[in-house]
Amino acid sequence: GESVGLHLPTLSVQEGDNSIINCAYSNSASDYFIWYKQESGKGPQFIIDIRSNMDKRQGQRVTVLLNKTVKHLSLQIAATQPGDSAVYFCAEKASISNDYKLSFGAGTTVTVRA
Amino acid sequence: DAGITQSPRHKVTETGTPVTLRCHQTENHRYMYWYRQDPGHGLRLIHYSYGVKDTDKGEVSDGYSVSRSKTEDFLLTLESATSSQTSVYFCAISIRNEQFFGPGTRLTVL
Predict the structure, then answer these.
(1) Which residue of chain B comes nearest to A8, CA vs CA?
(2) Between A49, A100, A105, which is nearest B42 by CB?
(3) Fewest beta carbons within 10 Å, which of A19, B80, B88, B91?
(4) CB contact under 8 A, A99 and B98
């Protein structure tokens, strides 16, 4: 089975509200996590990453939180815009992986309501 | 897009025929990956390469083979396509921990 997964397959958000996308992982040996955004018909694009020695990292309008105690990762998007409508994936890398392999969750589809 | 192209972008083929998908990169990256994407499964690793002629299996490698005779090209071959291989295929390269993806190839096996 998958070692990385998302709690909800879909999320509907009102434009201007904040979005929170959740991800649970099971491999306690993972030391690096990434959030990707995939728009329709395109490949996944990097949003933000976080290492296991951190519990929070902020980017432009996005924040990633990592709770290693419960193996939980979340992506927060501030002031959600129509262009944020996409599928969001979390991915993890095991610390023992020397080939930079990532394991991906199933994804959450975010729809922004006008 | 880290200089990654995939060809073809779309292909329809029949069960039992061989199919080869090409991934081309222009920036001399060592690591390259092939994924398939299906509804409800996210991205699953098929094969990957860590250098010319150096490849290894991913989690869903059955029915697929790969070759890398040049740094810039990573080929994915379905020796005898089956309907279960209908999917969207993504190539990726790795720059340290971060992976960058190509635009994808939509393959339909009838």
Answers:
(1) B40
(2) A105
(3) B80
(4) no
